Structures
1.
Amino acid sequence: MSGDTGQKQSRIARALVRKPLRKADQRLGFAGMGREALGKVFPDHWSFMLGEIALYCFIILVATGIFLAMFFDPSSSDTTYIGSDPALHGQEVSSAFASTVSLSWDVRGGLLMRQVHHWAANIFICAIVLHLCRIFFTGMFRKPRELNWTIGVTLLVLAIFNSFAGYSLPDDLLSGTGLHIFYSVFEAVPIVGPWLTYFVFGAGFPGPHIIPRLYALHIFLVPALLAALIGAHMLVLIRQKHSHFAGPGRSDANVVGSRMWPAYALRSLSLLCAVGAVCFFMGGFAQINPIWTWGEFKSYSIISPSVADWYIAWIEGGLRLMPPLEIHFWGMTVPNQFWPSILLPGLTFGLLYAWPWIDRRLTGDRGTHHVAAAPTSSPRRFVVGVVVITFFSVLLVASGEEAIVMWTGVPVGTIRVTLRVVALALPFVTGFIAWRVARGRLPAMGVVEEEMEESTTRELHESPIWLSAKARKQQVEPAGGAEEIEAEQVAEP
Amino acid sequence: MSRRADEERPPMGIVVCFGLASLAAAGFATTYVLGLGNVWYGGTFGGALMFLAIGLGLWSKRIDSASPEFVEQRDLGPTPEPQFEKFMGALTSQPVPRSRVLWSMLGFAGGTLGLAALFPLRSLFPQMGVNPQRSLESRVYKRGQAIVTEDGTGVKPDDLEYGGVLTVFPEGFNITEAAGATLLVRIDPADLHLPANRTNWTVDGVVAYSKLCTHAGCPVGLYSDESRQLLCPCHHSIFDAADGGKPVEGPASHPLPMLPLATDENGFLIARGGFDRPVGAAWWGWPDGREKP
């Protein structure tokens, strides 16, 4: 390109970028803040992008969800389906079911939106769980990040609930069966079970109220909570700044990586597009939840096999493996489904919420940390993580028992007994291995070493902006407020 | 300086990616207008995003390799004690009155309002007078109530072959409600070994059970005539249909509720009473003492 066009370009850039920004700044005065924001440093490790994947899934979920809400009718009252599904055409079905089939077959692009929505929900939860694992194993829930850990766990709970609610909306035979289990689970809530169940469903099962209620929660309350908590999660992150892995020049007092603009912004934008690409490819090529195959929900029918979506399937696996144990006292019953569907999730999320404080007890570590630990640096934490993941993996396998029955031809009872043993024994085995691994190799190994190699290939620099922040910190008088001190440019060599 | 150099030699790979992205985007618009179907929409739109992702990724990689790592200092830490005290001073100073009475009355009013605001939640519950526990305990059938199929026709024992099953309901029952689902199973009387007090609950080998699993309420939808076992597809509880619905395997802890059968003067099946226990899953507080007929 010649210098002439280069000048022309800069004139266009002036008109499109500089002028509007200048005008906005005259009114809002954001340039100082904006400059700090553009210089914000993001660590370069791939595992820091898991949370971003979840965030981008949320954006896709909201966008596709708004489209779906334009066509979906959340009502279980009967209607006649008229449309291009030949098997269902002219049949009396519920409005929720009929409108879901219509928006899939008779609204152009509707099936794509529906399938992208469903796939994105799966990837959303998957990314949250992996993000949680990363934070857990690197100890980044420790002070000062306990608050963001609890916000994150809440986001996981809400994401799972909202996915279940959305999955239940089409009033198809598979999700209706799931709702019936949900109903029975509510009945097992201590003391108030039956009352709570009637409060949630407004009637005996299934009743006319549950679909509109789930719809209201699915599209208003829970997304609003998710959005607010994602905002809070990110505000805390910005205030505390990212953690980072150990390496030369990295410490608890700084964060090393790429600046937000332009390198990280482009990378993150690339990730947004990549997440979108995966969701849209999946939505285009991979069928998910074909409700016309399951048919409309009838409370006296069922399809076999009936298997739940994976994020709820660990409860299903627990329900299957639990021996028929009930406790009777004072003429009352603690029903069997209580153990795997109330106690297990209660313990799981209770322990997750409490983990930063449990970990503090286990390790005696009360210090502030910004350098991510190697997963094996705390053998106890490492073992707990491995044991829990193993146990839940076996529960997930149990939720797909019928696949094993079909492959092996072994009766389901034998497989169940085997899985019960495996669920209890395998965590000990993997836990023991984890203990040996953690004990054999001490903190300086593993991820940390890898990081060191990676980071030595790149030159270290003080970001001009943050040099000034450091300078500011030094100049601040004990009594003074935060006065803006002009940043000193440091020339890049 | 490096930016100027970028402008002079645009990296072809990135340019091609962005070009392909716009092509795919145009392809999406075209296939949408032509109505080519889901695979085309997803392929083209996903393709546009994919090429954008690759282009942006390559671009950021270029910038990355050209720029050093940056260090940002963390200035997060506890506020120095004197400043924190000033903050506390500002929070607790005048003109906010320090009257304990005022504060506690404000708390009381706020609490009352908060509690009152919860009252509309009561509307989510069924109308007055419904006791969930009692509703759940319902035995569904009345003495002499006719047993009908989904379309409302009566059933005679001979409508079922030996080894056959049929889903039926109490006559006049709203079949969208789960509680009414009943399963008739016809078993050769020679193979039946019902508990002694229930031998007269069957008519010509026809036995009736609630179709709802006693574990988590799923319909017990699978029947094996060979073993005369009913299997729930949800959690694989297995019940013995020849032995009063006794649970033989899996997580279910209670037998399937059994319905005592008889025939009316025309030979149609009727109930001699309700189920011998509440239908569906047990609940917290389920009165185990009351399950015997």
Note: Chain A is about 65% helix and 5% strand.
2.
Amino acid sequence: MIWVNGVQIDPGDPNITPATLAWVTDGFIRDYANWAAVNAHANGNTDHVGAVAVGPGVPAHTWVEFSPANVAGINVLGEDHTHVRLEHVRAATGLTSFVYEVFACDNWNNYPQMMAAYNTENNARFNLFGIQAAPNHTNHASESIFPKLAVGMLLLANCLNGGAPVAELADRVAYYGLPVQRYLKIAWGFAKDVRHTEQAAPLAATAEETALSLLVHQHTAAVDGFITGLPIDGYLGDQIVGVTLPHTPALLALANAILNLLIARSAHDGGLLPPQQNQLNLLPHGTFMEKYVKLGLWRNLYFVNRVTHAVNNNVRFAGMGQQHMAYLSQNNHLPPTAHLYDMQPQGAEWRGFRVKTTTHWANHH
Amino acid sequence: MAPINVRAKLTRGRKFPALRDLSAAQTVWWLGEQFRFRDESGRPVSEVLADVTAPRGFGSTPRSLEGIMDTFLDLKGVTEVYGDRAKGTGIIIDSQGRRRAVDASVILPLAAQLFAEDLKGLTPGARSKILGRDTVAYAKTLTGSDEAGSFRQEQKLTVAGTYVLLRETAAGRASARTEVTALDEGVVTAADVTPPAK
């Protein structure tokens, strides 16, 4: 179904073309300002309009309209990760120019084993975004993987050293056992890459790299098969709760060593600007919570830089959690030209899309 | 029976594995059928709503590492909602100052949490005094299912007359607590429950 300037179009309308004839009666709401917009969409020349198929409610789709390509400014979508996500919008609008929160921007040249693990874990997501064949996934990235690796190891170490019940790693409500397993697999690839680099140039290695390299050497036989055999999207607790694993101490030692290395890395991360580096280095990292806060800021500063990079490179869409969009907006990290869309169920823009769709649905003939 | 006229200040606290502890200052106003709710944590609207609608009573709990880490962002601002239960209309003004109209039913749970829901079938427990009012504790069982599976857990309500002064939920290391810290009757004016002009 088609609305132009607020009026529903009938099949006999002289502006209908073979490309739009089926739309008149197909049961999907489409709303345009004028016929040029209808035809641009029908001809595949848009990336900003479409019907997002995410329930609940009637109809089970929602007509969305973001800022078009001929208007300056990036479209920033703040999402509830359990509701409408950027992949749903991509499926509806056909957008191809985007950065998204979950993709990592790092230079992988020295980390082939980490990259292999990362690609395995994210293959399904790459497919959702149609970028499985993209030459470089980092083109679509909003953040560094290293803070997230570190948080994964922080949470794992906290359970293995008694700071939290190991059973939580299997708890579907607590949930974090799933990402901990994902990041353990990626972090193990990272650790093996560090070992390889350290062996090639031992004098160039830092103390943290040397310590991790030694642990990798000592424990590969015990843990490699276990870690690399963990299923995709499984809960680590399913593999270790109630089981006496001889290599649990090795896992704890590795998690701590990886964490120490990454915190040391954060202190001179070349991806941050000097003021950001200073801001990060002022934070302590002695306690669990201090580490958590520091790693969160590390990630956030990267995020700021990546979104700025996307803006400067005329990327059309940036997808992120609504909290992040609010944070960037509140701290003036988005340009005045940015178009903000709160896509949560009660978010201002999603709510507007939904009201328009349901109103047309109620009044259609 | 006199129309409702009450203002309550609340503290919403939440501890949950892997998430940053939450402590949010909130206020509820009621004047007849009109209500207003204010949250000062800077959180997105969906999270504020989840405080009172999430079936397990723990509010919004992320399902991604990104979402987990986002709970450590320092957010600013207030979220306010205004509603009219008789007319069925409501307005949300988010922490970025943007407003939208909603059905009153969407936002009513935020203000209605001040009142004791149907206590029929619940056994009165310990008696105490909070804010100078006599209270009775009730144990309520929350049941349901979500993406983490089916559940059955206890929630404790501490009730003074028609008001719930304390609502506590706990399971494992997770706990949520909404406490009324001030309760003033007869002080609300029409201006308190009228949305600001656009």
Note: The radius of gyration of chain A is 24 Å.
